[in-house]
Structure formats: structure tokens, C-alpha cells
Input
Amino acid sequence: MSEGLTVEVQSVSELSSVERQDLELQETVIEEGALTFFRVGAALAAIRDRHLYRGTHATFEAYCQARWEFGRSQAYRLIDSAATIENLSPIGDIPKKESHVRPLVKLTPEQQRQAWQLVLNLDGPVTGDKVTQAAEQVQKSDSPQLSNPNSHDQHLTPPPVKTLLYGFFENGIDVDPCCNEGQPNIEARQHYRLEQDGLRPQWNGSVFVNPPYSGKHGSKMEDWALKLRQEFAVGRTTEAIALVPNYSAEGWWIHLDNYPVCTIRGRLTFADAEGQPQPSAARFASALFYLGPRYDRFKQFFGGLGRIWQPDLED
Output
């Protein structure tokens, strides 16, 4: 938390031309009332951390009060909210109101992600009460259970995502190691159904993975994430896309977080056993990981679904 900090310089001093331009830029963000609260918080943090207030005021708090009529608590609350939003941004769906962020700011970064994921898994709109309850839950438990609203294993890939997949894999998909029962939902040269245990065989060539989520069949998300990473690392899998729940706070996520990921906006409407859209969208967010050499092509095909994050590369 930033509440206990007092930021000041020894005396008022003249800003350089670069610093004046920086100050004007940050103040423009704050002045435009239509901008969201987290951008205001980020601008305030920049002014504080770069000491851009010193051209007119000895302390950051005095600057906020005189320039914006922000009291100390309000200014730091906005700064803390901006930091929390930055931490949550990989999940995809971020809080839209400062009041929804407020209960999260006292949590650790990992707890923030866990609590926010719990909120996203609930029915109905996000409310301050829901966020408060989720924050309290993660504080009471080191490993909260993320409610999986559709507790069955199979979440068949939606037709719009399939269309993008078939376009991306212009030569077809070689292996679907998580094939559904009945008529395969994904066109591939080799299918392994749940009862065949797709974790056992080698995955050679291009692969699409939409693993079972609940673990009812004995496998866990971590098993599939680790298998995919290993098959790609040894070169048997030449290129792969994995459709998974956007549970970035879960332990299995670390096996794939060195690869590009598309955090899908909103919620997918998965297909039923006949390949038709289910009556309602899933209660959880989804993500697509990409393992392969064609990042630009992945971004071209799937960038419309959400934000794409590339490790060690500015998006």
C-alpha cells in the first residue's frame, strides 16, 4: 500500500523542457474527465515517481490538493487502483469501476488475481459486494477453489474459434489429443478420445488442445499443460494452439506462460455434443496459447478475439 508514504523534494526547482512536456502529458490525462480511473491513477503515479510536481510544489500531496483538489487518500487510492489493474490485465476482463478494485488493493498480486477470477466465475454483473466477498475468501484460504460453472469435462470448441483454427493451420491439424465423444468436433488427422488417454502417445506435427477442465477422467489441467510444453520442447509438436480457461492464478498456467497468449474478451459460448452453441456463455473467461514459430500469423488470425501477450515483446 502507498498510504503511508510521503513523497517530497528538498525545494521547488525548475523542470527541464523534457520534464515540462512530461508533466503536461500526465496532466492532460487527468484533465480529460472521460478517461477511466486507472489511467488517472497511472498518470498520478508517474507524476509522483518522476517528481514532476516539484516545479510548483514541495510535496506530491500538496500538488494533488492544489492542482486537482485530490486529498491524500483519494490520490493514493487511484494510484493503488491503477497498480491493481495492471496486475489483473493479463486475465483479459478487468474491473470497470474503481469501487470494484478497492477491495483488492490490500491483497498480494497473486491474491488479487485469484479473487478477481472468482468474481468472473459468478453469474450476473460484477458488484462491489461480490469483489469484497471474493477478497475475503482468498484471504481465508491459500488456495481458493475456482468454481467451474460447467463441471463436466467437455467444452467443445465454438464454431467461430474453429473457423479461425482451420484458417491458421492451412495444412490441417495433425493431432487432437482431447477429442470429444461421438462425432469429432475438431477436424484432425489423429484423434485421441478421453478414454484413450491422449497424454500417453506422442503428439507429432501440428496440434490443437482443448483439454478436459474438471479432472473427472483422472487428468488435471497441469498434466495437459506440461505435456504440451514437453512435446513442443523436444520437437515432436511443431506448432500448437491450446484453448484453456483463463485461470492465470492457477499453478498449471506457469507451464505455458513463456508462450504467446490471447486473452479472449468476454465469455465463449461453447458447443454442445452436436456441435451447436450451448444456451448460454460460459461463466469463465478463456485464453488461447500459441507454441510455434509463426507469432505474426497467430496475431493476425486471433488478435480480433482479444489482447495478445507476447513474452519479452511489446505488443
Summary: Residues 142-152 have pLDDT under 50 and may be disordered.
